[in-house]
Design brief:
Length: about 110
């Protein structure tokens, strides 16, 4: 994938996550998107950071629940897949946001 296509896909995903997470748990967290970095600060002080890493064409996630992970876009599944497992970014965040909110949250 060329760098322009990556930038477009990654920016769209991060903007989507900002809107979806804010809608899902915005009452329980401070959700902020600034300069392409999505930050979700929970009421207890724990924090998510989601950003693109252009040199590796990845989206990076720092989670207070699952730790750090890197996700690469997979054309075949049109999903962001972990570079260390078969985990899908939207599935991981859906499960974690559900745990935080105490209700089922489905992103995507």
């Amino acid at each position: 994938m060329d760098s322009t296509a990556f930038e477009d896909l990654a920016e769209k995903m991060i903007e989507f996550l900002f809107d979806a997470i804010d809608e899902a748990i915005g009452d329980d967290a401070d959700v902020d998107l600034e300069n392409g970095i999505l930050t979700v600060e929970l009421e207890d002080g724990r924090q998510y950071v989601i950003n693109k890493h252009s040199p590796n064409q990845q989206i990076w996630l720092s989670s207070p629940i699952s730790g750090a992970a890197h996700y690469k876009y997979d054309d075949a599944t049109t999903a962001w897949i972990s570079t260390r497992s078969s985990d899908v970014l939207l599935d991981v965040l859906s499960a974690e946001m559900s745990q935080i909110a105490g209700v089922s949250v489905r992103l995507g």
